[in-house]
Amino acid sequence: MIPSFYYRIIAVFIVILICSSSSVFAFDAKQSEVLIIDELKLDDGMIIAQIILPDSVQSSIRPITAGLFVKDASCTDAQLIGYGQVKPASDGQTIIPIYGQIPLGSDPETITVQAGTNMNDKFPTLCAPYISSAKTVELPGSSKSIADLDSWYDSHTMDTTNKSRYVIEDIIVSSDYIWSSPGSLIKPEVIVTNQGEDDTSITPVQVDAYLGERMLTPEEAQISPMMSGEKKTFILSYNIPSDLDYGAYDLTMVIDPNLLTGKGDVYSGGGKISLATPDDDSFIGCAECWAAVHKN
Prior knowledge:
Helix content: 10-25%
Number of domains: 2
Organism: Methanospirillum stamsii
CATH class of the largest domain: Mainly Beta
Protein name: CARDB domain-containing protein
InterPro entries: Ig-like_fold
């Protein structure tokens, strides 16, 4: 019969192994500040940034997605400003341009932002393993107001080699999503035409979505390149931020928000999306909750 003190020794040894494993996992989860936020600037209520990736990505054959966020005390709560995706350059710097609205609730004087990526095509959060250092920019004068997306994109163009011209013709929202909840998924249909030249690139075209002034987190938010005159319907999907207030919101979508084809297009449609449900127990006895829902 094995003496009991041997069992104690074995138990201590197992505990040491578990603690060592936990330390390894914690080390693996440590974030690396390898991204650089370059040319951060404000333009009539919009934030524009260039995210420089490290030279090590040159060996990657997969597209890389990076996001720009409002720096928060918790990386899980960081509000999304904008994001972009590129295929790494085989030589030279790989840069991801990002355009987004100045978020609601920002400090009246400054905003502090931070970038994050998983170094792959998966959408990151600010808890991603690869981040930038935080960067603060002042909000002087007119920059303190939120951009009117439609008028901003209508008045801004970029000189690019891609001469495609994507236009959103319509947005269709199923009745399944007219009443939604914070943190839930919506799947709008978007009808798109290419009114420019053939898009012969292999890079998918990004489509952003907003409820009111709040950007939604993308799940499936890209469409395939299209030929000149082509018209297609795509079903995309987005997560509603879990901290978005109850209420009724317009759905706005922006195609090519980072101006990779030189011109973005904005369209609002699909009807109001209300963040509440008639049988939501949290609404019982809460007049303010219902007032927020019906305010629009």
